[in-house]
């Protein structure tokens, strides 16, 4: 069977030969799966991975402790809601050094730093509904919990916060790029196709927007719309359409001179059909490359906004927010609390940039 000689098939074969492009693609596919199954994988599957244990704050990776769980009756949520947003867990988890069984009660010695005697707290059997006797409580409700990446300054599991935080980074990139494509392609195509005063007006808007520093514009839009998850999506998307519009405008101005566009006009096709069906499919290659770069830029901007406190709001986990909470620990002897999310941001951004480079090489008709 002969191989397809279409431009898309040739580009795909060239992309597959690019080691870093394929490696980045698999890495991003893995990150996407982690984002989808975040709560299923995370050790702390509570909503926003927000189970706090102040007595074990800022612990090193691999730290283990016995955890006494005191159940609280809550309304059962649907499986799908728990999978997407985590368990609305009202159970109380208490780090303990030891648990002693007495006649009708349980006495737990609360966890403290090594060498110190912890406070003793007494619990009755009625607080553990699934235990038939006091002796069953340690078996059912006490288990060793290991924090693979340690705990943050509030005693939350850092691994769980990082896993749930992937959703924020990938979501902001996807939505921001989608908004920028919708606005940029629409305005760029109109400016390039019609020209004249329409082109002048749109170019004036593009140049004004282009002259404002991106981060400053995002902060202004965020403050106007308010702090929050969705506001950041919109703010970042509204600042990234300019480059898309400029590229599409230039592409459309070149493609509209082609003979097939002249033939479409002669056949009486409407301007809208000519733009959508004939011009844009032949002008999208550079936009695909720009989208990969914009995805990376959106992740960086969101991280910067969260670091400044105007991005995703607590307790929602964001990699930028985790760095904000722990950057002072770099000089306090526990730098991993800030370096782990920093390395995650760097890896995700690098992967998108490498994919953009691979796409540029694959879509370059002049390369071999």
Describe this structure in words.
The chain is α+β, with helices and mostly antiparallel strands. The protein has two domains: 63-147, no CATH class; 158-363, MetI-like (MetI-like fold), CATH 1.10.3720. The chain is 58% helix and 10% strand. It has 15 helices and five strands. Strands 4-3-2-1-5 form a five-stranded antiparallel β-sheet. Strand 2 and strand 3 (105-110) form a beta hairpin. Helix 2 packs across helix 6. The longest helix is centred in the middle third of the chain and has 37 residues, at 158-194. The model has no long low-confidence stretch (mean pLDDT 88).
SSE blueprint:
Elements: H1 7-16, H2 19-36, H3 38-41, E1 63-70, H4 79-85, E2 92-101, E3 105-110, E4 120-124, H5 137-141, E5 142-147, H6 158-194, H7 196-211, H8 214-225, H9 229-239, H10 241-255, H11 259-266, H12 271-279, H13 285-308, H14 319-326, H15 336-363
Antiparallel strand pairs: 1-2, 1-5, 2-3, 3-4
